[in-house]
Amino acid sequence: MQEGTLAGETALAEITQRKAIIDAVVITGGEPTLHGEDLVSFIFALKKRFPAMLLKLDTNGSDPGFLEKVIGAVDMVAVDLKSLEYKSFSAVELETVLCSIRIAAGFPQHEIRITMFPDYVDASQPDDYCTILNSSSVVAIQQCYLNGKPQCDKQMLEEFCEGLRRCVGEVRLRL
Question: What pLDDT was estimated at residue 28?
Answer without folding.
Answer: 94
